[in-house]
Amino acid sequence: MVPLLLVLLLAVVLFGAGFALKALWWVAVVVLVLWLMGFVARPAGHGGRRGRWYRW
């Protein structure tokens, strides 16, 4: 009975990890798209030059 429970627990953990990794990939893709859009849609800085889109 214990080995069966261990196998079921392992399957649940691996399924949860797989779902979490897939969700993290989608989050990474969204962040990458927003980051790239920041380079394209930067506001003009002083003197008409393109300014930095980040603050530091």
How much strand? under 5%
Number of separate strands: 0
The total of helices stands at 1
Largest sheet at a glance? none
| Average residue pLDDT | 78
Outline, from the CA principal axes?
rod-shaped
- Alpha-carbon distance between the two ends: 58 Å
Which segments are poorly predicted (pLDDT under 50) over 5 or more consecutive residues? none
Radius of gyration: 22 Å
By secondary-structure content and strand pairing, the structural class works out as: mainly alpha
Helix content: 55-70%
Q: What string, H for helix and E for strand, traces the elements in order?
A: H
Task: Fill in the keyword field for this structure.
mainly alpha, 56 residues, single chain
Describe this protein's structure.
This protein is mainly alpha-helical. Helix content is 70%, strand content 0%. The protein has one helix and no strands. It has one helix spanning 2-40. The mean pLDDT is 78.
Summarize the structure.
With 56 residues, the protein is mostly helical. Helix content is 70%, strand content 0%. It is rod-shaped and about 70 Å long.
Topology:
Layout: H1 2-40
